[in-house]
Each structure stands twice: as C-alpha cells, then as structure tokens.
Amino acid sequence: MDPARPEDETGRSPGGRPHRRSHTTSADVARYAGLFAQRTTVMRSSAMRDLMEITSRPEVISLAGGLPDTSTFPPDSFAAQMTRIAQESSAKALQYGPTEGFAETHEVIEEVMRAEDMRPDPGDIVVTTGGQQALDLICKTLLDPGDVVVAEGPTYPGAVPVFCSYEADTRQVEMDDDGMRVDLLEELLAELDREGRRPKFIYSVPTFQNPGGVTLALERRRRLVEIAREREILIVEDNPYGLLRYAGETLPTLYSLDGGDYVLYVGTLSKILSPGIRIGWVCAPPPVRAKLVLGKAATDLCTSTLSQYFVREYFAEGDWLAYVDELRDVYRSRRGAMLRALASYFPRQATWSQPDGGLFVWATLPDYIDTTDLLAKALRENVAFVPGAAAYADGRGSGSMRLNFSAQTEEEIVEGIRRIGAVVGEQVGLYETMTGSFEVVQPEEQDDPSTSSAARSGGDGANPGPASGDVLPFHRKPLRD
Ligand SMILES: Cc1ncc(COP(=O)(O)O)c(C=O)c1O
C-alpha cells in the first residue's frame, strides 16, 4: 500500500476519494465474470499490442511491430500544414464530420487508388479509423456467430482478434511463394459445400502479405476473382502495402480485376503517410456500404476530422508520391540488410520468404522450436519478433515468426537478427545434442560451399530446411532489385 495514500477497508482513502487498485484480485475477477457477454470468451488479444509495452523500451530491438518509420516525415512540413489548418479552418477542423468522411478525403483516396490503377466510384467509399476499423466494420456487417471466414494461412495477426470477436469459424488456406494456394481454396470450398456451408467472405492481403511477405500471382488473382463471381462470395482485399514495392512488376489488384462487385477493398494511409492519423477506408457496393456506415455511426460517429483536414492539406501540396519513393528507398535497403543478416546468422535449418515489397519477412524454423517459447528467450536478449501462432486462429504457426524490417535502422536489424539467430542456434544445438540428429547431415553436404551461410545469402532457390509440420516453409528466391 502506498503509505502516502492510506486506505480504509472499503478501498477508499480517508476523505472518501476512490483510487485505483494496484492489482486485480480473484474476487474482482469473480464479481465481473457473470456480466461478460458470451463472445468475450473467444476474444483474443493482439500479439503486437501485447508486445508494445516491452518493445517500447529503448534497449529492445523490436522486429515485432508493423511500424513504418515516421521519423522520415519532415517535421517542418508537418508544422506548416498544421499551422495552416489552425489559421484557416480551426473551427471546422475541431468539429464533428460526416460518418462516411469528407468529400475532400474521398478525393484523396481516389488519387491514392488511381496510383495503383483503380477507379473507385466515389459513392462507394467510407473513410474509416484505420484499415483496422474497416475490418471490424466488415465483420460487424457480415458475420453472425459461427459464420465461415476464409483467410490465408498465415493471415494478418491483427485480423485474428477481429474474426474471433465476431465468433467467426476461420478456415485458413496455405500459401506458397505465389500467395494463397487457390487450388486448396477450391478444395476447401467444395468441402464446405458438402457440409452445406458457404463462407461469408474470403479475406486476403494479396500484395506483400502481412505476415508472409509473399504476393499472389496474377493467374491466381484472376482465378480467385472468378471463384468469387461464380459462387457469389465476397472477397475482402486488404492492401496497405501495394505502393511499397521494391522489386518486380506491379500486379493488378483484385478490386480492379473484379470492378468492385464482389471485392470489398480496404486501404489505409498508415504505411504511406502515418498510422497516427488513423485514416483508412473501405470501397463497397452501395448496399454493403450503407450497412458499413450504420455500423460506423454506432461505433465512433466519424473518423477524426482533424486528421482528415491534415490529409487534405498534405495531399494538396502534391508531393505525396515523392515521399512514398523515399520510403521505398529506405525500406528496400532495410529489407536487403535483413535478408543478408538472416543468411549470415540463422541456422541452415531455417527458411524465410523473400518479399518484393511491404514490411515483413516470414521465417520458419524446425518444428521442434516453438516461437512463442523462443520469444521469451529472445526478450532476455532484448530483441522481439511476432510468434507465428498469432497469425493463425487455430493454434498453428508455432514453428514460424514474423520479422519487420521497416522500423529499425540497418545496424539494428542486423544486430536484432544476430541475437535471434543466436537463440535459435542454441535451440537447434540442444535438440541435435539430445537426439543425435545432427548425424543426418551428410559429410558431402557439409563440404558443399553452396550450403554455407554465405552461399545461401545468394538465394539460389535451394530450400534446405525441413517443413515445419503444419506450415509450408516459403522457398528462397533470388533477391530482385
Ligand atoms: C494487412 C493489414 N491490414 C490492416 C492493418 C491496419 O492498419 P491501420 O489500422 O493502421 O490502417 C495493418 C497494419 O499493420 C495490416 O498490415
């Protein structure tokens, strides 16, 4: 008890002023338990949110979050934009706004979507409080408890708590280097047909997937859109990273292939401008859009007016694509640093994706390593990653981890990977000593320079690591620039 604030047996300080408890007792838990809605029993916390407190400590190198590097945004421009808002639009910028967002924000969104060759109907757009709210509103609008949602396996770790809180039956379809295995999707849909069930939607991050780092191939995109049309299933295309391409050819979005009938498109300014402003959006056909607006009005009335004014000012300057170019240059180098560090410091049993864009690498370790346990060891070395289980609704993914390369400097990335590599190496060594399994390494393989760390950094397509039980390891491809 704080001696400065002595309390009586009612938990109130003398004078009756209530104050916060220092901890929750079992009596507290029991008192509230009977009040909770049934759905709270299946709610899940977000791994990234859970880690944020630890990873915000300055001594921790966090490869866990999906944080863009906001230090690259020039403070002088920010100050000038905010000053203009204060001088010219103070009262309006501080007022409530329309639930669907201002027409000027819609124009900005159209411009951003045009940069990826999309032509949305302005009447289809709803501004949301980040892409995250868009996902929540879509689930609120479409899902009854037990409804099937199909997602990639692994899927965006922040989507898992959303699907869980709406009590979805989430089915995940494996991916390979070319994104979701659409052949396996068709098998799953046939199986669901036999059970008399039809998914409400297929959730996909087709471009520079979070967490997989892979991109859905063109033929698969076409087939996915065809499947949605044939079966009248909606697709939710979540595309925060499409403009962050560092290599290879641009591919059409699912939304542009479909024309917006069956694809609900989710976008955000978080990764190309700032996550702090919380500006995202959904494009949906009018009947769906109308329900999304009703859902949003009940949730938060409108997205921050002040943020929308900032966005309007910023885009009016006309330099936003130059800033995205800058981000691309920074992240391209950091991606290279991470991939080279992985080749140097991760044991030969590990495999990882070679992203052409986005912010993440997905690494898969031998299946006797549980990355949730490994994280505790890594945190002792002041380094963090997202354990793979966070990217599955059903407990799979424990052999994998998500590594972010946008939030730290190249030096920190290399040091972070060195530290994780050391804890992984310890586990591999321990396992091999206990099981004698190191004997399976053939002598000629040991002598073969192509299997050395240095040679593997070239990414020659070899994939020496074993499959991690439930999760397909992504094969290494040559790094393209
Ligand atoms: C695939 C995906 N969807 C949605 C979001 C949410 O982004 P925000 O709410 O910041 O727009 C993220 C953030 O990392 C993401 O990676």
How would you portray this structure in words?
- The chain has 481 residues and is of the alpha/beta class.
- The chain is 41% helix and 12% strand.
- The chain has helices spanning 26-33, 47-55, 75-93, 103-114, 130-142, 159-165, 182-194, 218-231, 254-258, 286-300, 305-316, 320-345, 371-380, 410-435, 443-447, 453-456; strands at residues 61-62, 125-129, 148-153, 169-176, 179-180, 201-204, 234-238, 263-268, 279-283, 351-352, 360-364, 383-384, 386-387, 400-404.
- A hairpin with a 7-residue loop joins strand 10 (351-352) and strand 11.
- Helix 12 runs parallel beside helix 14 (410-435).
- The N and C termini lie far apart (60 Å).
- Mean pLDDT is 88; it is low at 1-10 and 439-481.
- The chain binds pyridoxal-5'-phosphate.
- Pyridoxal-5'-phosphate binds next to helix 5.
- Pyridoxal-5'-phosphate (PLP) is lined by residues 66, 130-132, 156, 158, 205, 210, 238, 240, 268, 270, 275, 280.
How helix-rich are the residues, as a percent range? Answer: 40-55%
| Number of DSSP-assigned strands | 14
> Would you identify the regions where 5 or more consecutive residues have pLDDT less than 50?
1-10, 439-481
Q: Specify the CATH homologous superfamily of the domain at 95-316.
A: Type I PLP-dependent aspartate aminotransferase-like (Major domain)
- Distinct small-molecule ligands in the complex: pyridoxal-5'-phosphate
Oligomer: single chain
Strand order in space, largest sheet: 2-9-8-7-6-3-4-5
- Write down the overall mean pLDDT: 88
CATH class categorisation of the domain at 95-316: Alpha Beta
